[in-house]
Structures are given as structure tokens and as C-alpha cells.
User: Fold Peptide deformylase from Arenibacter certesii.
Amino acid sequence: MILPIVAYGDPVLRKVAEDIDKDYPNLDELLANMWDTMYNAFGVGLAAPQIGLPIRLFTIDTTPFSEDEDLSEEEQKALKGFKKVFINAKIVEETGEEWAFNEGCLSIPDVREDVSRKDTLTITYLDADFKSHTETYEGLLARVIQHEYDHIEGVLFTDKLSTLKKRLLKGRLTNISKGKVKVDYRMRFPLQKKAR
Assistant:
């Protein structure tokens, strides 16, 4: 089932999410709904807070990035078919050079900005079967994970922009929270006036 994506301005996007255990109600159904919702919006990642749930869960499928001809063959190969569920994730370490990349977010439609992040990360997480993993990623894979991880920490990519950029985006962000934006997927807007 395709769920509405929560828009910028909703308090759930600012909460530090809670861990879950394998008894979390209807987890398989929730994961199926998250995949459907993400693919319907042409996203490569979706975190539970983006569908209104303050839990430490996100999904990633970087396959669409694997077709980018600007990437090396090795990078394309790493991105193709990378589809994972991250539960109760904790970033252990971020290392390497910082590099900028133009990011966007399903909760902040029509806003894209360059964001600097470290090149490499090591993360611990549980998969959909609650098996524990500690893995290291770099490049674009690391970036997608960092972006989704930020969501479960109550952080948005716009938080990482300069004060000037934030000021320039303020009006657009306010309009998004009021529903004054065109999107081709279901959204829930926190400040949208209800029709009487």
C-alpha cells in the first residue's frame, strides 16, 4: 500500500527515533508499504519518520543511481541491486574527505542543494530478519545511508546548509509545509488548511 509521505514542517521529522524489536506490530506489512511508497515516489531511500513513524527503520535501493554514466563502472556495480533494510542503525564512524553532492528529499520536494558529507562510514544495523551487521560503505552508497540515517536522528539535509542558503530557502520550505507544492506522489502537509 502506498502511504502518504510526511512533508517538511511535521514534528515527526525532528524526533530522534526509537529502536524497535522483532515483535514490532505488522513489520513485514510496514516494510512492504515502505518499498511501495518509495518506488511510487521514485526515491532511492525512505525512513520511517517520513511516513509518520518515529522508529529507527529505513529502506534503501540505489539501483536507479547505477545508470549514471558519470560514475565509474565499479561505482555503478556497487549501486546496482543494492537493496537493504536498516533497523536500529547506529553509525560507528565517518571518515575520509568531505565531498559535496546535490541532494534532495521526498519530504522536501523541489528543493535540491549541495551537501557536504564524509566519504566513508561504518554502520551497525539489523536486517529485516533481525540479523546483526557491521559494514563499511563509501562514496554514493555511504551518502544515501547518511541521508536516511539523518532522518532517524531528526535531521534533514537542509540543516547542513549555510545560514544564507537556509534563509534563501525559508519561503519555499514554508510553502511546502502548507502544501503549496506540486508533487506526483501522496503527501501529508502539516500546515495545509483543511477544506470546510
Notes: The two ends are 28 Å apart (CA to CA). Residues 163-177 form the longest helix (15 residues).
